[in-house]
Structure of Amidohydrolase-related domain-containing protein:
Amino acid sequence: MAIQARAVPRRAAPGDVEKAPLVDTPDNIEAEGDDDNKHARRLTTHFYVHPILLFLIVGGLCLRNFGFPFPSPAPEPLPPFVEDGMKQTLPLRVSVRTVSPRETGAVWLKNATLWTGENDGEEVLYGADVWLDGGVIRRIGKADDMVDLLAASKDYEEVELNGAWVTPGIVDVHSHLAVDASPELKGNSDTNSWKASIQPWLRSLDGFNTHDQAFNLSISGGITTMLVLPGSAGNIGGQAFTFKPRWTKENSPQSMQVEPPFVIEESDSGENQWTRTGAWRHIKHACGENPLRVYGNTRMDSAYDFRRAYTEGAKLKERQDRWCLSPKTQTEPFPSSLEWEVMSDIIRGNVKVNIHCYETVDLQDLVRISNEFQFPIAAFHHAHEAYMVPDLIKQAWGPTPGVAIFANNARYKREAYRGTPYAPKILADAGLRVSMKSDHPVLDSRFLVYEAAQAHAFGLNFSESLSSVTTHSARIMGLGHRIGYVRPGYDADIVVWDSFPLTLGATPKQTYIDGIPQIISPHNFNKPSAAQDISPAGDYDKEAQEAIDSRGDPNLRPKKSSSAIVFEGVQNLYLDGVTAQGEPGRVVVQNGEIACAGKDCVVAEGEYEVVQLNGGSIAPGLITTGSKLGLIEIAQEKVTSDGIAYDPLSGTELLDGLLVHAVDGARFEGKDELMAYQAGVTTGVTSPMTSKFFSGLSYSFSTSASHALAPGAIGNAAAALHLNLDNSGASVSSKIALLRSLLSGGDSLKASDELHDAFKSAAAGDLRLVISTHSADAIATLIRVKREVAPKLKLTIVGGFESWMLAEELAQEKIGVIVAPSRSFPASWDQRRILAGPPITNHTLPSYLASHGVTVGLGITEECDARLTRYDMAWTYASSPNVFSKPDAIALVTTNLQELLGLNDGVQAKADLGFVAYEGDMFSFESRVRAVRAPGADSMDLF
């Protein structure tokens, strides 16, 4: 029979992280493993006593207590359905592994700078050796400590690291890799079901696509483990599973799992059977806007649906518990339900519950429900408002949930509107476990460590930042007993880095999964010594507190400005036409213009604001393009945007219509604009919003302006003519036919005079034509059109992931490319042939194009990414210093974009970008903007 007991839950104190021994043993694995073994698995503990054993125990007690013997009849065998039923609620266990079941082999990593994850992430071992064997970490020490292993091993790989940084493999706690597969096709879209809002019976494992092109990309970013979740269309989207993103000999989804909760294994009778292993299970919940948008579930509907589902689970658990009280007397099989059994298992504490939740109201709804049905929450994901209510998170039933968040991705919908880059620091300071995650392919998980680096740059200390993509994520997933640390006995999932992992552009040299190197012939660059140092966390305490005090809506306008400033400690001047007198040292600004540059500049009498830049730089204001910044505030709220532009191409003919001017829908003082301005982005360039062929005329604007009539608000009101050349709507060939006709004069076409005039100007080279496409085939066709129809055409490609295949032809025809976004990802069929960059290829896409003489700019696709423009530029430089000098890299987001977007065409004066003063090296995370002179301004805003 099975006897039930309910243990009293112990709530983990804020920041309570269990310390782990260095070597796994059966005792310490169960005691530590991850702290959830101790705290979360205490919901309902089942003690199983076989009837035979119970009979013997009772008999023994009778003999001892009463002193007389009695006959012991042979026990009757239990029916098979009773035996099976008694296995259904076995307690979870953590297996002790001495070797990986999948791999063998030995690797000796020598002379590493090793971040182990120990000592709350503070431990760094210098000159350490790591021995990997049989898929696990065998030993950490010095060369002398490896003598016996070397002698015992007949075949091993010896790798001299020369002090390179080594960390545990990167763990992504929120991914849709292989269910939202790349490139996206109708045949591989398995992230969501569209049948109902509550479907706990679905499993991401059943849609896991082993042909996802992103596997190798993610591996090249150090990803070694990922929790693959169903999507968030419904409130309960289904069960999630943990995978390693590498192919196995079996090459099946099951063989890629880390700890499968169920496996196909051979029974004693030699037959294959579906068997429960006892490993953690995982499930995805979602609340807020997604279920509303997809199923019409308001928050009240969603809360009811959650409670209804948990009620079904509680009913099933109660029936199961009654059965377990007296299994020998049962005449029916153990109670089960295909639909609700996982809900029962959640209440038993056997399932990690991961909840897509943004706002305070959503967070409290689920906290309330967790207490009502007494189940723990593993983590709240996205959780853009969690930083405002950390004490609410701690009210969840059982141990405090983790919080899995983005570093920057926000404001794309209302519930993400109050996101802040200071959230990781605020949450960690409040004692919560913070994980950075990708939501792949929302963000390419290859660059998950970049999320941690941004968290570090905006205030999170280095140990918490590295832990946020290793130890914290592993423990949230219930895998802290085998991944997330560099410890003997743990999985041999190791990343060797070309620099300190939180530096800008840090890239793996090699990724080991189960001790096997995953990157074939990696392309590595030697980074400077400064990139190897542990970087300091950014000092943003004041800004973080302001985000809290304002309830997520701080005043982003500059609080101070001055028309007379002296900048001291200037090391670099990157402004055209400004020459320093000797060493820069000092720069004097009067009425928005640089009056003097040089250490010997004499400051006239009067009041000057003195700003110390500590070896910093003064550079042009940066340009952002590619998103709809300046036309939209919240992407999923139509009322906050200009709306979709009129498209004169309808059906198969060109109608009398308008040539849309984006400037007429200009919107100012949006959060993303003001945050970009604080980050040194002074100018935005945006074309009308549409996914159709015709977009219209773009405009440039000041990111600091309050309205369209403010001085300097509008730069070029009709900068370039924009088109979209993808395979949606009319065929590409139809669009090209129309383009040919318009460029050749096509007066027979039924079109407005303004539209005809615009294309005539483009054909003559007076108006730049900007066409969005990634496809090499489409780009090749455009090159032919230029050669055959409009040789004078000034043409720019935006997107251009496959443009590297035509680099020589593009250079020959003087066709420029704005790479947007700056790091390629094969999201669609027309983007699949990418140039991935190091460590997979020796060139990035921008560096390859530039090395072939193509004029290159960098762009974005999401409005929130405008504030990261400087980081994109610096990353491109760090990845290809042999191609780009620092002035060349700055040109990628300044003067090159001026040319490629036609900002200086047809205007009397060169476009004014203003200039920006940076404290520290503007090519590093540690640098920050101290002052900005906006376009057309006669004073500088101080930050």
Summary: Residues 555-620+914-943 form a domain with the Urease, subunit C; domain 1 fold (CATH 2.30.40). The CA atoms of residues 406 and 638 lie 24 Å apart. The two ends are 70 Å apart (CA to CA).
